[in-house]
Amino acid sequence: DGHRGHVVHFEDYVNDFNIYVSSLNLSIHYKSAYLLSHSMGGAISALYLEKYSHPFNASIFISPMFSINFNLPEQLAELIINSYAKICTLLDDQPSYVLGGEDYQEERFKNNHYTSSELRFNASNNLFKEHPKAQLGSPTMHWLKESIEAMKKAIVQAKNIRIPILVIQAGADKIVTSNGQLHFFENASLSSQKNKLLDIPDAQHEILLEQDKYRVPAISAILQFITS
Question: Among 41, 60, 104, 144, which is most exposed with the fewest C-beta within 10 angstroms?
């Protein structure tokens, strides 16, 4: 079921990404290479940089997923997720959606948690209309369980990242929280003094789809970081 956001092992994302990057032969074709990631891509990129030798000179993390906003105490949320994931595995061969999860549904701009730019929100929705194979529904409970373990691992091993990083936080993010991002940044900074942390006040999760007053400072910071 292509609508279910699911993976058996989160490490599969990391290994697949390594195969893809290796196939590009970046060090042969370019003098410099930079890795830019967003949200779940941030967790994947972090684990990749921690595990593999790579061609990148620096890495930028935008609203990276190192802790998810569950609106519950962290330990309680993990207990519920782990228990529910085990029960679902026993009861059904098909990976079960998270509670309240469903197939892809076109969202409305009003009360969305991703961006305050209606223009860019609609442009994003239009892309999914034009390319239905890219449509993705809710994640599965097993994906959530795997993601929690992966985020913890990425934070603990952040000191293994040997290149400068820029972490950009969305001040009004309701999808991920700043706690994990700060812990990740602190650990990564043990091995590099060139790391930068930037908070964009009032910006929502999709900073690159935000209004210009949030988006432009983020892009400017990215370009400045790369050129430095």
Answer: 104
